[in-house]
Design goal:
Mean pLDDT: 80
Strand content: 5-15%
Number of helices: 16
Oligomer: single chain
Shape: globular
Radius of gyration: 23 Å
Strand order of the largest sheet: 1-2-3-4-5-6-7-8
Helix content: 40-55%
Low-confidence stretches: 1-11, 54-58, 354-362, 403-411
Structural class: alpha/beta
Distance between the termini: 59 Å
Number of strands: 8
Length: about 450
């Protein structure tokens, strides 16, 4: 089956290619122009095989060795003065090992240039099953290939508009379980939310971030007119949650005449794209500065630049040059104090941040952990489990604000995801601090009454 769809060997796509061209010259004399380094926070890595037509009915995704090699991509980054990228590798079950090996070999050869994000692909399941994801992230996810447990830095893009996410919400149990695995490995989650409807979108996204304060959420998409979600929603998210970030990418710079150029379904060739892009270049820079300047400057540490390349012609030299020139003209119109943050510093900062320390005492008696495991397995009931939590509070091992605890109006009907956490904690999958934080949240939000 694998050979029938033409998967190439890893050495082919890492092969040396020539990189002897000069940086592309500017075509437009815009008033402002940023000339510093960039970091692309949104790039779909070319695939290891040519997809069947049914996988993509609009345009063909780029393929390694056909449209570009890893060497060619690094060369293109050098030409465009892009220090690094968040590279989204599609994870298909039938080529999991080959894809991980490619990412690992690329990191070994070009350390820090392409940050590995894994993008789950399935026609039926929206996410990689949590236990399987845990093994992939800790370096034991393939049967015969071992790799570093810090290779994978991100999970996503989770494209909520896709067919496998129909009816799914970002605070569904499988998502909440996934975030806990990502927290354990200090992995960024990258999400393209879907507006279905607006109130539900904002609620589920906000709830997911609120429940996981130690997970870094990178959001993509949205527009003034409601393309997937709204700028106003993202502004609220960034204001309320310091662990939320936004990737404002070239492709979502929606022109007044229709969909974003890069994924406009009426544009099916690079020639059409270049013609339309050049026609409205300067007008669209000005229009998009009016739309986006405020949110970038009001949240200077949370918004970052990207391009969202993915189709074969997105990696063309002339197309890439135009996209970067457009981006630099846009960045040049921002407040000088935030230009570098948006251009590259915020993305680099996300990668350099260490896990937050937890300000709770976590010397928990062994019998409490035994109770948690028994409760997760159904051996003891909810009431017995709550008694153990009451002990933690009474002994000062877990601190709950007195005003919140005293006014608790919840019940002992405990959400399923907490039982999952208890089982993982008992098995050593998550640490004491992560377990205690989950219980603290339930009590503080008055979901669980432990009086």
């Amino acid at each position: 089956m694998i050979s029938s769809i033409g998967i190439m060997s890893i050495p082919d796509v890492l092969a040396q290619t020539s990189c002897d061209f000069d940086p592309q010259q500017r075509e437009f004399n815009t008033k402002n122009f940023y000339t510093g380094p960039l970091f692309d926070a949104h790039l779909h890595m070319p695939l290891l095989f040519t997809q069947p037509f049914a996988f993509d009915e609009i345009a063909q995704d780029a393929v390694l060795g056909t449209d570009i090699t890893i060497e060619g991509l690094i060369c293109q980054m050098d030409k465009e003065n892009i220090n690094g990228i968040f590279g989204f590798y599609q994870i298909h079950d039938f080529i999991l090992e080959q894809t991980i090996k490619l990412a690992n070999d690329t990191e070994d050869k070009y350390p820090g240039r392409i940050t590995t994000f894994i993008l789950p692909v399935s026609m039926t399941l929206p996410l990689i099953e949590p236990q399987k994801l845990d093994k992939i992230l800790d370096g034991t996810g393939t049967s015969s290939y071992q790799y570093s447990n810090d290779l994978i830095k991100g999970y996503g893009e989770l494209a909520m508009y896709g067919p496998s996410y129909v009816g799914a919400n970002l605070d569904d149990p499988i998502f909440l379980e996934t975030y806990k695995i990502l927290q354990k490995h200090d992995v960024i989650v990258m999400i393209h939310p879907k507006d279905i409807p607006k109130s539900q979108h904002l609620k589920s996204l906000s709830n997911a971030i609120d429940l996981n304060p130690d997970v870094k959420f990178l959001i993509h998409g949205c527009s003034e007119s409601g393309f997937d979600c709204y700028i106003s929603d993202i502004a609220k998210i960034l204001k309320n949650y310091p662990n939320a970030y936004f990737s404002l990418d070239t492709h979502i710079f929606s022109p007044p005449l229709g969909a974003p150029y890069m994924y406009d379904h009426t544009i099916n060739s690079k020639e059409q794209f270049i013609s339309k892009f050049k026609q409205y270049f300067e007008r669209d820079v000005d229009n998009n500065l009016k739309k986006w300047k405020k949110i970038i400057e009001e949240h200077p540490d949370q918004v970052m630049w990207g391009m969202d390349r993915g189709y074969s012609w997105h990696f063309d030299e002339e197309v890439g040059g135009l996209l970067v020139e457009y981006s630099r003209a846009f960045i040049g119109g921002l407040d000088p104090e935030v230009q570098e943050k948006y251009a590259y510093k915020n993305a680099e900062q996300m990668l350099s941040q260490s896990e937050k320390s937890v300000s709770v005492e976590t010397t928990i008696p062994a019998w409490i952990k035994n109770n948690a495991g028994w409760w997760a397995d159904g051996v003891i009931d909810d009431s017995s489990f709550v008694q153990g939590i009451q002990f933690l509070i009474k002994e000062g091992i877990m601190e709950i604000p007195p005003t919140t605890q005293g006014s608790s109006s919840g019940t002992n009907e405990i959400p399923a995801w907490i039982k999952n956490n208890a089982g993982w904690w008992a098995d050593g999958v998550i640490d004491d601090s992560s377990f205690v934080q989950g219980i603290q949240f339930l009590v503080e939000k008055r979901i669980l009454n432990v009086d």
